[in-house]
Structure of Glycolate oxidase subunit GlcE:
Amino acid sequence: MTELAIHAADRDIAADLCEQVRSAYADRTPLRIVGGDTRAFYGRPVEGNALNMAAHSGIVSYDPVELVVTVRAGTRLSELNAALAEKNQMLAFEPPAFSDASTIGGAVATGMSGPRRPWAGAARDFVLGTRVITQEGKLLRFGGEVMKNVAGYDLSRLMAGAQGTLGVLADISFKVLPIPTANHSLRLSMGLEEALAKLAELGRQPLPITAAGWHSGELFIRLEGGASSVNATKERLGGESLSNDFWQQLRDHQHAFFKLNEGQALWRLSLPPNTPPLVLEIPQSDLFYDWGGSQRWVKTHMTADTLRAACEQAGGHATCFTPFAQGGAESPFTPLNPVVEKYHRNLKAELDAYGIFNPGRLYAAF
């Protein structure tokens, strides 16, 4: 057993968590699953007894050679990132950390990924396996610690983005990647239409781009990879140097853009690649294009119906990041069509028959 594993062992409270879930299941008591509670704004508010995951923390095992780490759900993102960085490795999906209290369990449960998402993959793409506390209070393992092991793999990945509505994430195994040997970020002055055309052109070429965005007349690009490739692309694109902190500020919503004016709500528009600007009466200063234009942040007073209709017409969807109590949409996530809703209900009924896990977090009915 490694030193990290020994250090983590005394913070394993899985047995206590299982007992709390068993009691809630027997009494039909709703549970509100809480880690760092830094993502409470994402989704609908939950009423229930707190199931505190923060104390269930620590790195269970870490094999840098095999690029695999297993970590308890209450582990802070900052601690995990620091441990990986010591071995020159990282979580490639670049999960947001809205404060130092952010946990890896919350990152996976919400399924959020950072600026590297279109080039590296989503959170669920790096989940190898999980230990999940079921509705009966049983601690079950799904998946494994290698990509080749597919037994139960889909169920593990299903937990990414489920917001704790299907079970309690106890431990998670990830595939990690080496930190790129070279990086450079730059900014180019150009309008929106030109920027989108530029991104479409660059996207058809084998360039070391791992982040790209646009805001207020500036195109932002991050290059990562081998030194020769990064330097060659840097010389080709030109522009002004940009601090790498820019991407962390964007990822964690610390950029000045995310400061809302009175009455505004923050929306994320998720759209197919190379989607042209939507016809919306929104000032360009209130738009921030991320993920090469596939993820668009919008600050607006517009209604949910107006935004969602425009996104649906373009083949995408819209999610509200501002709580309803603060002026956001009553339903933060796009309503499901009847067929998809049926599958959601059936899955919820199978894994959470009495609705004890974060009831109403995704949708009011379940």
